[in-house]
Amino acid sequence: MNGARVELRSICKKYDDACVLQPLDLVVEQGEFFALLGPSGSGKSTLLGTIAGFIPPSSGEVVVNGDDITGVPPHRRNLGMVFQNYSLFPYLTVYRNIAFPLEMRRVRPKEIKQAVARVLDMVQLSHMADRLPAQLSGGQQQRVALARAAVYDPPLLLMDEPLGALDKNLREDLQQEIREFHRKVGATIIYVTHDQYEAAAMADRLAILRNGRIEQCGSPHHLYNHPGNSFVAGFLGEANLFEITSKQEGIENGNADVIAETRQGVRLIAARSPQDDAAIAYIRPESIVINPSSSATLANVHDAIVDDIVNSGGSLRYRLRVTDNCVLTARKPNDRSIADLPLGEKVRCAWDSKEVVFVPR
After folding, report:
1. Rounded mean pLDDT of 100-125?
2. What is the pLDDT of residue 74?
3. Which residues does residue 189 pair with via DSSP β-bridges, in sequence order?
4. Helix 94-104 / helix 138-150 crossing angle, nearest 10 deg
5. Could you give the CA distance from residue 205 to residue 35 in angstroms, rounded to a whole number?
6. Taking Cα atoms as reference points, which of 54, 33, 134, 34 lies closest to residue 91?
7. Is 104 helix (H, G, I), strand (E, B) or coil?
8. Rounded to whole angstroms, how far apart are CA atoms 137 and 143?
9. Which among 6, 153, 179, 217 has most CB atoms closer than 10 A?
10. Is the pLDDT confidence value at 284 over 90?
11. Identical fold between 6-230 and 238-360
12. Buried b / exposed e along 294-312 (16+ C-beta atoms within 10 A)
C-alpha cells in the first residue's frame, strides 16, 4: 500500500462569528505518521473532521494525491477512520465487523475471507474471529477497529484519540502496536491526541495547535529542543518559564554570557544569545541538578526549599521554591542511589548556562 499525500490549503472553519480554524496550510507526506496535538478546544478534531469530509470547511481546499476532494462526501474519499469509542457493531462477530466495509463494496466472498484473515493476523486476533465485541477487552476492541479501518487498503487512516479510553499501561502497549501496524500497512496516518507524551512517542512529525492555529510543526525531537515560542516550550514536555525584564551581554566566570533579569527575581546566565523578540526564557526540569557535588562548572546556582516530591514510577518530580515568586520543577530518574529529600529541606539547585533558552512569548 502506498500512503496518500495530504495537503491543506488555507483551510478555515467558522461557526457564525466563531472562527474554530484560522486559515492554515499543512502538508502530510506519503506514508508519514503525523500527529495533531493541542489542548481541548484547539481545533484538532475539527481539522481531522474536515479531512474526513464530516465537517465542510468555510474556505480552503483539501487535496489528496493532487486531487481536490473538498466537496467529495466522506464515503467516497477512500480513507479509514478509527474513533475513541471503537464504533463496533455489538451483534456482529469480530470477523463480520472487519468484513463489513468489504461487503458494502461488494467484494467477492473469497477475497473478503483472504483480506480479513490478513488483517486479523496483523493485529494478532485470528483466534478471536468468532467472538462478539462484548467478549473482548478494550485493547482488543481497538485492534478490531484498526483492522476494520485498514481491511480495504485505504491510503489514508485518520485516528481521533483512539487510546483515550484505555488505562495507562494498555495505552502504552497499544502505542507500540499501532506503530508496528503502521509499518506493516504503509498508509499515511493522521492521529489526533491531547497527550504530549503519546504524540512524541508515536509520530514522525506533529503539529501543535492552539486556538485554531498551528503554532509549530516538526519532529518531536526538533520541537522539544527548538520550540518556536513559550507555548510550544511549555506544552511539549515540561518547562520552567521565566519572564525576562532585561538582558545584557556580560562576563561571568571568565565566559562571555548573556545575563538576564526575570520578573520572578531570579538572575539567569545563558550561553545563547536571545533573538530580538525573545521575552521568555525556559529551563527543562531534567536540566536542573539538585545538590551538585561541585557547582564550579555550573553558571546558575540558587538556594531552594523542597516544597513537594511526586514519585511517578520511573522518575521523581521535585517542586523547589527559590523565592516567593519562583518555584521550579526538577525531574530526576528514580534511582536507588539518590538519597531521599524530606519536605522543607534546604538544597542547592543548579544548571548550566547552555540549558537556558530564550523564545518569543
Report:
1. 93
2. 93
3. 33, 157
4. 20
5. 7
6. 134
7. helix
8. 10
9. 6
10. yes
11. no
12. eeeebbbebebebeebeee
Name, in order, each residue with C-beta under 8 angstroms of 157's C-beta and a sequence gap of 6 or more.
79, 80, 81, 82, 149, 150, 185, 187, 188, 189, 190
Q: What is the pLDDT of residues 5-34, one digit of tens each?
A: 999 999 999 998 889 999 999 999 999 999
For domain 6-230, give the CATH number: 3.40.50.300
CA distance 63 to 95: 33
CA dist 99 to 80, 147, 184, Å? Answer: 14, 10, 19
Distances (CA, A) of 344 to 56, 90, 129, 308: 56, 55, 58, 8
Say how many C-beta atoms besides its own lie within 10 A of residue 96's C-beta: 15
Of the candidate CATH numbers 3.40.50.300, 3.30.750.24, 2.40.50.100, 3.40.50.620, the domain formed by 238-360 belongs to: 2.40.50.100
Range in 86-95, 226-235, 312-321 the model is least confident about: 312-321
Write out pLDDT tens, residues 262-277. Answer: 999 999 999 877 776 7
CB of 173 within 8 A of CB of 201? no
Which grid cell is 212? 485554531
Q: Strand pairing partners for 316?
A: 311, 332
Domain boundaries, the chain: 6-230, 238-360
